[in-house]
Design brief:
3 domains; four-stranded mixed β-sheet; Butyryl-Coa Dehydrogenase, subunit A, domain 1; Butyryl-CoA Dehydrogenase, subunit A, domain 2; alpha+beta; Butyryl-CoA Dehydrogenase, subunit A, domain 3
Length: 380
């Protein structure tokens, strides 16, 4: 990343070294095992909290460490460099679950719901998607009906990252009329009677992250767990997506970069017809195409992150960055497997996992089609 000194200062470089050391010591030696097992040990949250990684970007008075967006970029890049997108997504599910609490919650709610997660004592998930649909957030069906100083919640959620072992879920529910004005966010304690994990979902990629289907049957949630005014959550959810889309863009660029690095190494060493693969112009050009796409995508993402950091609204550009980076990641990973030949299809080779992990990036956090809808509303 040395070509991007404009965006990263001394504190980012020091932070990058410390995350990279953590990944090298605490994750990489075990990551293949965790991928196969479909989860990583719970104490990794504690370890990541102890070195301050979970609290990056959160206020100090909640146990966080004040940091800028580029520290979050560094954290995402280095965790992705563990070689397991699932590990990064699972360990950092708080990155999508806590921001609505930070943005909409009272001081008392922030203390109750954010501090224990940043300490690594509790796991947090975000529950928006339902079996009936994820793209159309305004059509959430899980219903919360007021009963005294509680809500009674009934419904189901699916594809929830860290959902199997989360202690709390930031849950989108319908408290009012149809459409986006009837949606609220509740923080639900997963130990509440009536809350069950109905299924652990088996996936194409992101194996090390657990992904759950959740069922809520007459779950009683105190009104004091509602974030903001009743029926006002839709725009909070939409704002939250901006950060998630930036994280996913950074993951896509880093995944593609790793696929390129693996391919460069392999193409230099592997021989066919008496010469290394780099001796074939077609391979060299493929590697150049991969490097070019990544460079363009990464620079655009960094530039947009810098503008967001400076306070500009970049909804259109972040949506573009997500589409573009996910697309080039798919293409680069496809080329990487091709360069590896049959070995690219084997689990011992990292590119096999990168190829599978890449596929979620144009779906999660809003599909590429939904990104295009957002962009079209802005440019038309
Ligand atoms: C591994 C993984 C982890 C996830 N983690 C979470 C999580 O932690 N929390 C959470 O809430 N959700 C999570 N999701 C869900 C994810 O956000 C949804 O899958 C995504 O938003 C798409 O919703 P859907 O799957 O219901 O697809 P649908 O909304 O049913 O869409 C199906 C297809 O139709 C297209 N489509 C839909 N509407 C339009 C339109 N208006 N115009 C054009 N095309 C359209 C879509 O682009 C897509 O191609 C996760 C998903 C996966 C796979």
């Amino acid at each position: 990343m040395s070509g991007n000194l404009d965006y990263f200062g001394e504190s980012h470089r020091i932070f990058r070294q410390s995350v990279a050391r953590f990944v090298e010591r605490e994750i990489k030696p075990y990551v293949d095992e965790w991928e196969e097992a479909g989860e990583f040990p719970r104490d990794l949250y504690q370890k990541a909290a102890d070195v301050g990684f979970l609290g990056i970007g959160y206020p100090e008075n909640l146990g966080g460490t004040e940091a800028d967006l580029f520290h979050e970029v560094v954290l995402t890049e280095e965790l992705t460099r563990s070689g397991s997108g699932g590990l990064a997504a699972g360990l950092m599910s708080l990155g999508i679950a806590l921001p609505p609490i930070l943005a909409l919650g009272t001081e008392e709610q922030k203390e109750r719901f954010i501090r224990p997660v940043l300490r690594g004592e509790k796991i947090a998930s975000l529950g928006i998607t339902e079996p009936g649909g994820g793209s159309d957030v305004a059509s959430v069906r899980t219903r919360a009906v007021r009963d005294g100083d509680s809500y009674i919640v009934n419904g189901s959620k699916t594809m929830i990252t860290s959902g199997c072992r989360a202690d709390q879920v930031t849950l989108a529910v319908r408290t009012g009329e149809a459409g986006h004005r009837g949606i609220s966010l509740l923080v639900v304690d997963t130990n509440s009677p009536g809350f069950t994990v109905s299924k652990k979902l088996r996936k194409m990629g992101w194996w090390a992250s657990d992904t759950a289907e959740l069922a809520l049957q007459d779950v009683r949630v105190p009104v004091e767990n509602r974030l903001g005014q009743e029926g006002s959550a839709f725009y909070g959810i939409m704002r939250n997506f901006q950060k998630e889309r930036l994280y996913l863009t950074v993951m896509a660029n880093t995944t593609a970069q790793m696929a390129l690095e693996e391919s460069l190494k392999y193409a230099r060493l592997r021989e066919a017809f008496g010469k290394p693969l780099t001796g074939f112009q077609v391979t060299r050009h493929k590697l150049v195409d991969m490097a070019t796409m990544i460079e363009v995508s990464r620079e655009f993402a960094y530039r947009m992150a810098a503008k967001i950091q400076a306070g500009e609204n970049k909804v259109k550009e972040i949506s573009m960055a997500k589409i573009f980076s996910a697309d080039i990641c798919d293409r680069v990973c496809h080329m990487a497997v091709q360069i590896h030949g049959g070995y690219g299809y084997m689990r011992e080779y990292l590119v096999e996992r990168l190829y599978r992990d890449s596929r979620i990036l144009s779906i999660g956090g809003g599909t590429s089609e939904i990104m295009k809808e957002i962009i079209s509303k802005i440019i038309l």
